[in-house]
């Protein structure tokens, strides 16, 4: 199944440091070390190469519509199949989820931050395709939350917007992503996140709940609040992103239940601000203040060209997803019109429960689509302008 060489290291792995544990537990195909100094350590071992060749053949023979299939040509495959990051990640670690799940839309994950550079021949065209023309010569702008007071309530009368949510993903500097983390690192990260969040004050003040040893009553309450995340789906499982579950995973929420942090779900950190109604300004201000407070204590993994780095290449740059649950019954009758307005403002329309779900009771989940090549403020403004326009049109019908 593949898995990173740093798997059995018990101490913290700092980026670009050698994952020097040799062949680790022997049973894991990609577990062959990643030292720069020793040539043999830097070779992809025979078992991994065999899986890579078989995986590539399977992908080519399939009718998969994934971006992985589209861009992993024989030429790119041959150029990358012998490469390895200093954490010991190989091309197999990047593509195994897309090879196992041929119905993937994207089909690739970055097992560590370095993978975006080492395997750039594959990541760059996929990023350009998904993020609508973010070319390998383009540079993501510096983080800019803009004037946080410029957004107001998109639906002051409360007729259309049920709830509003803004979230972002962050990775902790000096740690690889999920597939390469040791159990010791998972626990160390959880301890850091827990102590950092416990220091938050004001409306962000709350409590951290580790998934390990969680009481049934607490678990039920978090399920009722729709806060609890489950072990990853088959796409994440195949990418080795769910190892040592539930070790090192946890949830933090503030007393008002309007601010939430997921620790070590798909990403190191998912930071979420939400509330009922359409007051995007309030939701956005809360998120920005939380991100700034957390970053004072925990340095985030950032790339000069790609912005904030996370496990999935669909979620780079700002990593911001600003969304509303909205009722637009008249527009819903003309779905093509709803889609065309959404496209004009770079919005994504989903069912109530997110991707691949139905619109329950005519309620849609609508969010900004673009995350790269624009600032955080611009990403949220696209959603703000688009939702305002949708409401205006719904009222006129």
Task: Explain what the structure shows.
By secondary structure, this protein is of the alpha+beta class. It is 35% helix and 14% strand. It has 13 helices and ten strands. It has an eight-stranded antiparallel sheet. A two-stranded antiparallel ribbon has the order 6-7. Strand 4 and strand 5 (269-276) form a beta hairpin. Helix 1 (46-61) runs parallel beside helix 4. It is globular and about 65 Å long. Residues 5-40 have low confidence and may be disordered.
Radius of gyration: 21 Å
Assembly context of the chains: single chain
Euclidean distance between termini CA atoms: 54 Å
| Low-pLDDT runs | 5-40
Give the overall pLDDT as a whole number: 87
Q: Helix and strand succession?
A: HHHHHHEHEHHEEEHEEEHHEEH
Indicate the percent of residues in helices.
25-40%
What about the largest sheet?
8 strands, antiparallel
How many DSSP helices? 13
Looking at the structure, what is the overall shape?
globular
Beta-strand residue fraction: 5-15%
The helix/strand class is: alpha+beta
Number of strands: 10
Topology (elements, then pairings):
Elements: H1 46-61, H2 67-71, H3 74-80, H4 91-100, H5 115-118, H6 120-130, E1 161-170, H7 183-198, E2 206-210, H8 216-224, H9 234-238, E3 250-254, E4 259-263, E5 269-276, H10 280-297, E6 302-303, E7 307-308, E8 321-327, H11 329-333, H12 335-344, E9 347-350, E10 363-368, H13 376-396
Antiparallel strand pairs: 1-5, 1-8, 2-3, 3-4, 4-5, 6-7, 8-10, 9-10
């Amino acid at each position: 199944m593949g898995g990173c060489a740093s798997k059995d290291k018990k101490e913290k792995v700092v980026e670009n440091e050698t994952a020097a544990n040799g062949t680790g537990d022997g049973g894991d195909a990609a577990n062959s070390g990643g030292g720069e100094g020793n040539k043999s350590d830097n070779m992809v071992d025979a078992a991994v190469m065999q899986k890579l060749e078989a995986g590539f053949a399977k992908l080519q023979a399939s009718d998969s519509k994934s971006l992985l299939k589209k861009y992993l040509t024989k030429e790119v495959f041959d150029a990358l199949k012998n490469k390895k990051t200093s954490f010991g990640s190989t091309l197999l670690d990047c593509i195994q989820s897309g090879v196992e799940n041929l119905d993937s839309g994207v089909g690739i994950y970055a097992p560590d931050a370095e993978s975006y550079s080492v395997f750039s021949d594959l990541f760059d065209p996929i990023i350009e395709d998904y993020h609508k023309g973010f070319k390998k010569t383009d540079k993501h702008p510096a983080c800019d939350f803009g004037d946080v007071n410029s957004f107001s309530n998109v639906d002051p009368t409360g007729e259309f917007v049920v709830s509003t949510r803004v979230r972002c993903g962050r990775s902790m500097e000096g740690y690889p992503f999920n597939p390469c983390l040791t159990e010791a690192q998972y626990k160390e990260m959880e301890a850091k996140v827990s102590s950092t969040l416990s220091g938050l004050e004001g409306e962000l003040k709350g409590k951290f709940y580790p998934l390990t040893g969680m009481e049934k009553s607490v678990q039920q309450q978090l399920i009722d609040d729709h806060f609890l995340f489950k072990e990853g789906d088959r796409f994440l499982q195949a990418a080795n992103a769910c190892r040592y579950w539930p070790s090192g995973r946890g949830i933090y929420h503030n007393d008002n239940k309007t601010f939430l942090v997921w620790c070590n779900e798909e990403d190191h950190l998912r930071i979420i601000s939400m509330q009922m109604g359409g007051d995007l300004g309030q939701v956005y201000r809360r998120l920005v203040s939380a991100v700034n407070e957390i970053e004072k204590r925990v340095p985030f993994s950032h790339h000069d060209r790609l912005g904030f780095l996370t496990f999935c290449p669909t979620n780079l740059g700002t990593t911001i997803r600003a969304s509303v649950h909205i009722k637009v019954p008249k527009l819903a009758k003309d779905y093509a019109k709803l889609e065309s307005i959404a496209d004009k403002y770079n919005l994504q329309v989903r069912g109530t429960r997110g991707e691949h779900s139905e619109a329950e009771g005519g309620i849609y989940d609508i969010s900004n689509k673009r995350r790269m090549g624009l600032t955080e403020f611009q990403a949220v403004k696209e959603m703000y302008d688009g939702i305002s326009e949708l409401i205006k049109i719904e009222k006129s019908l």
